[in-house]
């Protein structure tokens, strides 16, 4: 764990400057366990924060994380389920798929053609 100051906020994360002058990036995906839409909802320039150093990228830049220092939520939020479609829609869809299967590949039109 290292303490640094938020030097700059961007759409994709925040640059953190350390006392020795070195700067690293906390990517937006490493700010919180929940979805982060706007970095400035979580961090402000000049703020002092604690980060974990994940490593260095191929160019020698520091990769940092805030969420790695936090306990993960016990249960991750589940995606909302999409309700069932109306029976009328389901029937139309089944009918469409059945007709498409009867037509076969490459045939066009709503009805099967007779030769």
Automatic annotation (TrEMBL):
SMART domains: S1
Keyword Repeat appears in the UniProt entry: no
Compositionally biased intervals (Basic and acidic residues): 93-109
InterPro entries assigned to the protein according to its UniProt record, in alphabetical order: NA-bd_OB-fold (IPR012340), Ribos_protein_bS1-like (IPR050437), S1_domain (IPR003029)
Alphabetically ordered keywords of this record: Ribonucleoprotein, Ribosomal protein
UniProt-listed Pfam families: S1
UniProt key word Ribosomal protein: yes
GO BP terms, alphabetized: translation
Gene Ontology cellular component annotations, sorted alphabetically: ribonucleoprotein complex; ribosome
Superkingdom of origin organism: Bacteria
Span of domain S1 motif: 1-67
Example GO molecular function: structural constituent of ribosome
Residues covered by region (Disordered): 93-115
PANTHER family the record matches: 30S RIBOSOMAL PROTEIN S1 (PTHR10724), SMALL RIBOSOMAL SUBUNIT PROTEIN BS1C (PTHR10724:SF7)
Family the entry assigns: Belongs to the bacterial ribosomal protein bS1 family.
UniProt-recorded name of the protein: S1 motif domain-containing protein
């Amino acid at each position: 764990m290292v303490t640094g100051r938020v030097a700059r906020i961007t759409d994709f994360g925040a640059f953190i400057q350390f006392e020795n002058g070195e700067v690293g990036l906390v990517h937006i995906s490493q700010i919180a366990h929940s979805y982060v839409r706007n970095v400035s909802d979580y961090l402000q320039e000049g703020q002092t924060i604690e980060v974990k150093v994940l490593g260095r990228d191929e160019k020698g830049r520091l990769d940092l994380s805030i969420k790695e220092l936090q306990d993960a939520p016990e249960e991750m939020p589940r995606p909302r389920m999409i309700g069932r479609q109306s029976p009328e829609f389901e029937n139309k869809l089944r009918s469409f798929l059945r007709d498409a299967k009867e037509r076969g590949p490459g045939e066009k039109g709503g009805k099967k053609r007779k030769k």
